Amino acid sequence: MKKIFITLLLLYGAACAPATAVQNKAEINPGFVSIDILANLPEPNCESGLTPANQEGPYYKADSPERTSLIDADTQGKRLILSGYVLTSDCYTVPHAWLDFWEANADGEYDNDGYTLRGHQFSDNKGRYYLETIMPGLYNARPIEHIHVKVKIMEGAVFTTQLYFPAQPFDGLTINLQEGEGVLIGYFNFVLK
């Protein structure tokens, strides 16, 4: 009887665990949006040509942590989900591409001591990436909202660029942005040689 009770207790605990885990993730990250965004990405499109390179800027910091969310418990700002594909110039998806993102906080300040709003990840087996972050703030030296990124595919060189927003578009580097429920949803495909 004791053995049956323990088995039932374990089964009950296992059945309840996934719901609790999802609930806790949503509580910790109020900007949490289901990973289903990846399942609903628009088809890969390379018609715009190669993604233009853009300056690295003075605030790059190597060895960022691997993570898909740059949001910490105390991160302030409008939530942004950014996703898309990493593609070759002939429009093939690139699995396991390295992407390194960094940006200013909502007040336009970079964390040069730690790794706040900095992180790298790898595209999935379908060449997709998914990033949870915030809209970057403006700073006096450069009054245009932007996110920095480095991308490396296969054995190629590291490619450096910046992503911009529709309010201040930049040719070939503007994120397609939509208003979601309490979060902005952005799409951008990296097309590289």
CATH fold call of the largest domain: Protocatechuate 3,4-Dioxygenase, subunit A
Compute the number of structural domains: 2
* Overall CATH architecture of the largest domain: Sandwich
Major sheet details = 5 strands, mixed
Poorly predicted ranges (pLDDT <50, ≥5 residues)? 1-34
The coarse overall form would be globular
Specify the helix fraction band: 10-25%
- Overall mean pLDDT score? 84
Assigned CATH superfamily of the largest domain? Aromatic compound dioxygenase
CATH class of the largest domain: Mainly Beta
Report the span from N to C terminus. Answer: 65 Å
Computed structural class: alpha+beta
**Strand percentage:** 25-35%
Per DSSP, the total helix count is: 2
Short description:
The chain has 193 residues and is α+β, with helices and mostly antiparallel strands. The chain is 16% helix and 26% strand.
Q: What descriptive keywords fit this protein?
A:
Protocatechuate 3,4-Dioxygenase, subunit A, 2 domains, globular, alpha+beta, 2 helices, five-stranded mixed beta sheet, 193 residues, four-stranded antiparallel beta sheet
